[in-house]
Amino acid sequence: MQLLDPLSAAIVLGGTLAATLLRCGWRDARVALHALAQLPSRPFDSARVRAELAAQVQEIGEDGILRAEPHSFGDGEFDDLSEALIRHRSIKALHDEHARHRARRQGAADTATRVLGEAAELAPVLGLAGTLVALGGFAAAADADYARSIGTAVITTLYGLVLANFVFAPLATALTRRARAEERERQELIDWLAAAVERSIPLRTDETADKVAA
């Protein structure tokens, strides 16, 4: 049996991708592709962001919250957090903004994981379909051709199992692991930032803010 069969691999992989796209749709597929494209990149650099945040907190402590300017950290969430802190002068605003970004990231991670899970589920099915096609195509062929069809049938099943258990399922797990690690680091930064801001400046409570607004 020939282990490398490009045609069988193309049939199983192409069929799996097509079936996954039909089941999940273009929008979810794009989210999954974006998440996979980000997987080889450098993980979230909490040390760099913490250093930038420390400079922001020091500036607020020295110049006051009213004269402080929002910083750009190169990270969408912490850029918005800096702006929310300056605008609202409230720890609650930090947590609310963080919760909004966390929900968006979690939704994207869940979508990508679901798409890859669907692909892992469909790959063995397409491998079996390739097996049936290979056997049916050579049902009336000569003995030598029929022997080759048996090898093709087995290799398509193997490709389906390999794609499911060594490609799509591990990628889904890797995305989940990375998302959890990033959320943990971001939450630690938010807790540190809230504590540092409380020590540096007298922020308004929600009740005080309501009275000032009234």
Overview of the molecule:
By secondary structure, the protein is an all-alpha fold. It has one domain. The protein contains 7 helices and no strands. Helix 3 packs parallel to helix 6. It is rod-shaped and about 85 Å long. It starts with 5 loop residues before the first helix and ends with a helix. The C terminus is likely disordered.
What ranges have pLDDT less than 50 throughout 5 or more consecutive residues? 204-214
* Rg, nearest Å: 26 Å
Residue-averaged pLDDT: 84
Beta-strand content estimate:
under 5%
Membrane topology: Multi-pass membrane protein
GO cellular component, one term: plasma membrane
Protein name: Chemotaxis protein MotA
Organism: Pelagerythrobacter rhizovicinus
Task: Provide keyphrases for this structure.
214 residues; disordered C terminus; 0% strand; mainly alpha
Could you give a short description of this structure?
By secondary structure, this protein is mostly helical.
Present the secondary structure layout:
Elements lengths: L5 H19 L1 H13 L7 H18 L12 H13 L2 H47 L5 H58 L5 H8 L1
Helix pairs in contact: 1-2, 1-5, 1-6, 2-5, 3-6, 4-5, 5-6
